[in-house]
Specification:
nine-stranded mixed beta sheet, Urease, subunit C, domain 1, eight-stranded parallel beta sheet, 13 helices, 459 residues, alpha/beta, TIM Barrel
């Protein structure tokens, strides 16, 4: 099967030009002006932006959490991602304390294998680092192609590891060419504040936010950065939200340290005032939404090269699940649906409003994640030999986000009624048309697991 995409405005992290793209099988075979080739299918992309498929390196599909499961299965979640222009996602395996990493991988494979519509990979969350776990690290990096390991500095008693375990894990991961991802908030301080607010009868969603003040994230980020500096292990802070935490990264650059930073689309465009609403539970996530001054800091951080990735931390729950915490904010499942909305919101709020360039849009929504997580140039760019993961995007089409028309399995939208300028029209995944005119053309099982290469800090 071959496809010729004609006359599109091709945008990568570095380029902006009009040309044709010839695809044969799963990969791009040629790029040029007025290509003289015979193709099984011709797509006229005149007036469209032609960009690499998005990569969302932070999603939680079918994830056990707080006695329930996130509401998007691997089939539904990866399909919704495709509708929004994201062709590859990286999900998180959660090790159960006392169990091996291999048993955690098996559990997640039982849910994901042959069920994904789009391409996917995994990070391994290490919640119990010990002598046995240590022996598994090399195997995961060199054999399984899982090269990134998540740690939690919060969720005490469930997911959190201490600094002793963190240092040990960092040294082992560095030895074998991997990367540490971190949820950087101070779990002890958060636990104290949660208990304090509950004892005072302060139980509304607002107190979820007030239990995680900026200092809890700033302090943990600084501590993580220092441990990464000491061990020399590549470090990546997930879902960074605030000025104080980004300043920890700024400080690290003064000693020539490189720390990768991810923020999420919600932290760029919505703020903590939503927690005062009656339905504030819709936006309960950790870390919580912050203040408008933090949005300004994050946009600046993107343009300064301090923030490399815009992801989602997509972890949807039905409203009925959120109501588990109607009388106690600490029982609200943490998570937010955004896997389908990320690319269009980032374009509309970022590119259209002059906050980022088109090239920066591609860089933070696709290319940097591919580079950091060992998938480039197979993923994350439009180049000869790369996977034909391509989106055709109409920059001028206006539409409204709503739970009535999204494809995520969640009965509300965090962006209900939000008018967006820019729409994903056609999506190709490994040379096959996956989405066209709001219709999915591929089935579950088409998505492939992506084995990843060792990590390079030179992006």
């Amino acid at each position: 099967m071959s496809i010729l995409i004609k006359n599109g405005n091709i945008i990568t992290a570095t380029d902006n030009y009009v040309a044709d793209i010839f695809i044969e099988g799963e990969t791009i075979k040629a790029i040029g002006k007025d290509l003289n080739v015979v193709a099984d299918e011709i797509i006229n992309a005149a007036g469209m932006l032609v960009m690499p498929g998005g990569i969302d390196p932070h999603v939680h599909l079918d994830m056990p959490f707080m006695g329930t499961y996130s509401s998007d299965s691997y089939e539904i979640g990866t399909r919704a991602a495709l509708y929004g222009g994201t062709t590859t996602v990286i999900d998180f395996i959660l090790q159960k304390q006392g169990n091996s990493l291999q048993s955690a991988l098996q559990e997640w494979q039982n849910r994901s294998n042959n069920n994904c519509v789009g391409d996917y990979s995994f990070h391994m969350a290490v919640t119990d680092f010990n002598d046995d776990t240590k022996k598994e690290i090399k195997h995961f990096i060199e054999e399984e192609g899982i090269t990134s390991f998540k740690t939690f500095m919060a969720y005490k008693g469930a997911l959190m590891i201490d600094d002793r375990q963190m240092i040990g894990l960092m040294e082992e991961v560095k030895k074998h060419g991997g990367l540490i991802n971190v949820h950087a908030t101070n779990g002890d301080m958060i636990d104290y504040l949660v208990a304090k607010h509950k004892a005072e009868g302060k139980l509304s969603p607002l107190y979820h936010y007030l239990s995680q003040p900026e200092i809890t994230e700033a302090e943990a980020s600084e501590r993580f950065v220092d441990m990464a500096s000491y061990t020399g292990c590549p470090g990546y802070i997930v879902h960074l939200t605030c000025e104080g935490a980004l300043n920890a990264v700024r400080n690290a650059t003064r000693r020539n340290q490189k720390i990768f930073v991810e923020t999420c689309i919600q932290y760029l465009i919505i703020d903590a005032s939503l927690y005062k609403r009656e339905d504030g539970a819709k936006w309960v996530m950790s870390p919580p939404l912050r203040e408008k001054k933090d949005q300004q800091t994050l946009w600046a951080g993107i343009n300064q090269g301090l923030v490399q990735v815009v992801a989602t931390d997509h972890c949807p729950f039905m409203w009925e699940q959120k109501l588990m915490g109607k009388d106690d904010f600490s029982k609200i499942p943490n998570g937010h649906p955004a896997i389908e909305n990320r690319m269009e919101l980032l374009f509309s709020e970022g590119v259209n409003k002059g906050k980022i360039t088109l090239n920066k849009f591609v860089e933070v929504s696709s290319t940097n994640a591919a580079k950091i997580f060992g998938m480039f140039p197979k993923k994350g760019t439009i180049a000869v030999g790369s996977d034909a993961d391509i989106i055709l995007f109409n920059p001028n089409e206006t539409h409204t986000l709503s739970a009535k028309n999204h494809h995520m399995n969640v009965d509300y939208s965090g962006y209900e009624g939000w008018e967006v300028k820019g729409k994903v029209k056609t999506v190709l995944l490994r040379g096959k048309v996956a989405i066209d005119n709001n219709e999915c053309k591929i089935n579950k099982g088409f998505g492939k697991f992506v084995k990843r290469n060792k990590v390079s800090q030179n992006i």
